[in-house]
Design brief:
Largest sheet: 3 strands, antiparallel
Radius of gyration: 23 Å
Distance between the termini: 58 Å
Helix content: 55-70%
Number of helices: 10
Order of helices and strands: HHHHHHHHEHEEEHEEEE
Bound molecules: fe (ii) ion
Strand content: 5-15%
Shape: elongated
Length: 327
């Protein structure tokens, strides 16, 4: 029988210890599944933060003269499984990001409640050092959730201005690719034209500019959906960004010394100014070329100016990773 607050705290700590370790495994997969570069980066950053949280829990156990032991956290297991389920579903990339974000925020809230309980127990037990450590983690989880909420807001806004699956995209999948298919349900056209088609189109856009057919610009002339295109030309990138009020930036804490760190484009009102730091275009392009990057951009979506962008490798099959076109 558990009879003391201390036992309750130990129970909570073991649960959290297991939860954090599950996340250390899950976060790289979540980052890999994200299409949006800011979201991917948020997951990668949170992975590092989570590793620190595991160590912090070890410290708390040490303060209690106990060996750090975990107890299977079923709650986190369920949340992680739900996240995996979502990642395995057919979504248009922007929507997949929103779905993953929803799952990730549930995780953050679950953790926040765990740390809140543990912190309160430690405080009641007058274990001020332990309480301080637990509060530090609680703050980190809250910050992460805040950042995810901001990204979620932006992605939802972007998704609402995109053509709905089965409309514009359906036409392009029929006319452009000649992929044979026996199925014709709407779900089919959604999965092919949404995710796979937009990806394969973006992959070919840099190669097939002359044809004009799969080039984002060519499409946008029609005022409907524009395919993403890969650009490496500095002037073109700069003009595209400046037209949208975006600034060259790097992710705080990723560089050091002479190194600029991870580069990003910072759009007004989009990314937390706390995570991005403005840098010069010269520094930005230096890193851009050094890392052999290309910028995948979309000019317009449904006639509206699009801020969609993603840094990808210049010469890789697909754009860098993960899914391939099916069918
Ligand atoms: Fe955590």
């Amino acid at each position: 029988m558990k009879a003391t607050l201390q036992e309750l705290l130990v129970d909570e700590l073991r649960d959290l210890f297991d939860a954090e370790k599950q996340l250390v495994k899950a976060l790289p997969k979540m980052a890999k599944s994200a299409s949006d570069s800011e979201l991917e980066n948020a997951f990668r950053e949170h992975l590092e933060v989570t590793k620190g949280q595991v160590q912090r829990l070890e410290q708390v156990f040490e303060m209690m003269d106990m060996r750090a032991r975990s107890k299977p956290c079923r709650g986190m297991k369920g949340l992680v499984e739900e996240g995996q389920e979502i990642m395995g579903e057919d979504f248009e990339p922007g929507l997949l990001d929103s779905a993953i974000l929803g799952a990730a925020r549930k995780v953050e809230h679950y953790e926040m409640m765990g740390y809140e309980s543990a912190h309160e127990l430690a405080r009641q037990l007058r274990m001020s050092d332990a309480a301080q450590l637990l509060q530090q983690t609680l703050r980190e989880e809250m910050e992460t959730d805040k950042k995810l909420a901001q990204i979620s807001k932006r992605l939802t806004k972007e998704a609402s201005s995109r053509p709905q699956a089965g409309q514009e995209e359906e036409k392009s999948s029929r006319g452009g690719r000649g992929r044979s298919s026996g199925r014709s349900s709407q779900a089919q056209s959604r999965s092919q034209s949404g995710r796979s088609e937009s990806r394969s189109r973006s992959e070919t856009s840099s190669r097939s500019n002359s044809s004009g057919r799969s080039n984002g610009r060519g499409r946008s002339g029609g005022g409907s959906s524009g395919g993403a295109r890969k650009v490496t030309d500095h002037e073109e990138i700069r003009a595209w960004a400046e037209e949208r009020g975006a600034h060259p930036a790097c992710v705080r804490g990723t560089g050091g010394g002479e190194d600029t760190g991870m580069i990003r484009l910072d759009f007004p009102g989009y990314s937390g100014s706390d995570s991005l730091q403005e840098i010069s275009w010269d520094d930005w392009f230096e890193k851009f070329d050094e890392n052999n990057l290309a910028l995948l951009i979309q000019d317009r979506i449904r006639g509206q100016k699009s801020n969609f962008n993603k840094l990808v490798k210049r010469e890789t099959p697909a754009h860098g990773r993960t899914r391939t076109a099916r069918g």
